[in-house]
Amino acid sequence: MRSSFNLDLFGDMPEPGESFSPIAPGAALLRGFARAQAAQLLANIEDLIKHAPLRHLVTPGGYPMSVAMTNCGSFGWGSDQHGYRYTAQDPISGLAWPAMPEIFLTLATAAALAAGFPHFAPDACLINEYLPAARMSLHQDRNERHMTSPIVSVSLGLPAVFLFGGLSRSDKPQRLLLSHGDVVVWGGPSRLAFHGVAPLADGWHGLLGSRRINLTFRHAGEKLASSGFD
Ligand SMILES: O=C(O)CCC(=O)C(=O)O
Ligand SMILES: [Fe+2]
């Protein structure tokens, strides 16, 4: 274990062996993997949300989500009374989602590689904003066309308890405290693992203030814009 002294000095350079902890077959937590790029990621996020604002989507059951969301990349994930789906356009503006910044793509592919997935080519990045008390209930990410690509999930800002369960909703989830710069990757046998986020505790983060932002990178695949309901 590194001392906090070393962490401070070398916080930008996590050593691969130290930053990697397996969670389940095909799933890993990369501690601090995105920390060095966090300020640049945030600058890009602030710019993206000017073009595609964060919004509270409504679940198919009619409830507004506590997490505010937007997207960048070729496809964006969304939800409304008809179901969950990917679209090529932002339904608010009717315009294509903003392009995925190069630094997002580089980070996501590097994290996937570090977790054992060398061919990840994300075409969708969901941007989730959690204010205190916001949460995400246990779910599977299953609106993508193929399940062959992993999910890469980047945490910024306030810490959150990430719930990582098994392939069945009733499997008791692990509780992982995710901090600023942590990245979780799950694919292969864990690709359809149930996961969620416990209600965000109030707090203050030097860079992001009183919020957590999560970036979830996925390969949605083609043709989902018109047929993604499930
Ligand atoms: O915020 C997180 O850490 C998880 C987000 C998530 O599971 C999702 O957007 O599908
Ligand atoms: Fe998810």
UniProtKB/TrEMBL annotation:
Gene Ontology CC terms, in alphabetical order: cytoplasm
Cofactor: Fe(2+)
Cross-referenced Pfam families: 2OG-FeII_Oxy_2
Keyword Chloroplast: no
Residue span, Fe2OG dioxygenase domain: 121-221
Keyword Iron tagged: yes
InterPro entries named in the record: Alkb, AlkB-like, AlkB-like_sf, Oxoglu/Fe-dep_dioxygenase_dom
EC number: 1.14.11.33
Amino acids binding Fe cation: 139, 141, 195
GO biological process, one term: oxidative RNA demethylation
Manner of cofactor binding, per the entry note: Binds 1 Fe(2+) ion per subunit.
Keywords: Dioxygenase, Iron, Metal-binding, Oxidoreductase
Top-tier EC class: oxidoreductase
Superkingdom of origin organism: Bacteria
Molecular functions per Gene Ontology: broad specificity oxidative DNA demethylase activity; ferrous iron binding; oxidative RNA demethylase activity
Entry-linked PANTHER family: ALKYLATED DNA REPAIR PROTEIN ALKB-RELATED, NUCLEIC ACID DIOXYGENASE ALKBH1
Protein name: Alpha-ketoglutarate-dependent dioxygenase AlkB
